[in-house]
Task: structure prediction
Amino acid sequence: MKKINLIGSTGSIGIQTLDVIRSHPEKFKLEALSFGRNFEEGIQQIEEFKPALISVSSDDIAGKVKKEMTYTAPVLYGQEGLVEAAVYGDADLLVNAVMGRIGLEPTLKAIEAGKNIAIANKETLVTAGHIVTEMSRKHGVKLIPVDSEHSAIDQCLHGDSEKEVSKLILTASGGSFRDLSRKELENVTVKDALKHPNWNMGAKITIDSATMMNKGLEVIEAKWLFNMPYEKIDVLLHKESIIHSMVEYIDGSILAHLGTPDMRVPIQYALSEPDRLDLKGGDRLKLWEVGALHFEKMDYDRFRCLKMAFEAGRAGGTAPAVLNAANEVAVSLFLEGKISFLEIETFVEKALDSHTPISNPSLEEVLSADKAARSSVLTYLN
Ligand SMILES: NC(=O)C1=CN([C@@H]2O[C@H](COP(=O)(O)OP(=O)(O)OC[C@H]3O[C@@H](n4cnc5c(N)ncnc54)[C@H](OP(=O)(O)O)[C@@H]3O)[C@@H](O)[C@H]2O)C=CC1
Ligand SMILES: CC(=O)[C@@H](O)[C@H](O)COP(=O)(O)O
Ligand SMILES: [Mn+2]
Result:
């Protein structure tokens, strides 16, 4: 029986993680659970899974939970509570399904506590990949990808040596606006941006897919998860999201991972690897129904966020933390209707232009670059 701590339980990845746990009660047990503000979803999860520790974003939500729950367990809140939920008890695995850089501290603390990490929270690896990977090596814990592309690559690699790999090929759907020109992007709405063609995900990552920043963050995530130089990471436009990613070997062979766009597949694999379990429910891929798969070379002028992410990744040091922090703030401003879609990339570009990266930064230097980038983006509003 694998014991699991889950942070971000009420989000898209969190809910699907609980679905996997629910469908294999003989394999998985939920120990601790953390969510933010979604009380309705959270209280149902608490009553169903009866975790031994709960954490929420604030004191007022914690009060509501304590009043409503029908058994006794500690209910913590805030950043401290989030960390406590991540490191709780003798869980074997932390599933990090929170959105954004807030996932960094619980990840580091869980690594120190010797927990393997199933990581959906890509912002953590983008912000401080060098620290997270170094600490996981030091403490002998595994970083198991949940992101569909990285799970696909992990499954293709199957432990193969880096030396035999010539390229990791990340596929990109193109997001909600893939067929629009840059001119047409000037007036797109939040509502339209939130309509991803293939995946049903949280709001922030759906906007990241539309700007192609998601793929940029994934390039940096791949660099850290697979210890690959940027020269060996490529992105290919593939509008069907059927091939989740590929690995090209030095002899020219390419291995690809295919499946329906269903995040329960990589989530379940991250929980059970190296074993595979039945996927209960969900469609099987019927290639005769799909008919044809399409591929296009990436246009870096059209998708400038992807270009910026490659540049920030290559610059290294604190640059990826600034890219991520500026993007988190810009996306939330867009979702609040305060800036236009194209201003997301303009704001991120400005934050990167005004930042001089520090190489091999400490955690404090990373967090201070992150904080400064968040404040500077707000000043671009006026
Ligand atoms: N969705 C997907 O299919 C994929 C997502 N990812 C990555 O996984 C991560 C999660 O994405 P997704 O599930 O879409 O995001 P969602 O926005 O759907 O969910 C985010 C979760 O984090 C919780 N949360 C937010 N703030 C806090 C806080 N202060 N304390 C505790 N919990 C908090 C939210 O709680 P609440 O809602 O209760 O406030 C929610 O449970 C992201 O990094 C994303 O890039 C990667 C691949 C695919
Ligand atoms: C499901 C998942 O992993 C997302 O990151 C997805 O890949 C988004 O798709 P695109 O960024 O390719 O549009
Ligand atoms: Mn992905």
Notes: The two ends are 54 Å apart (CA to CA).
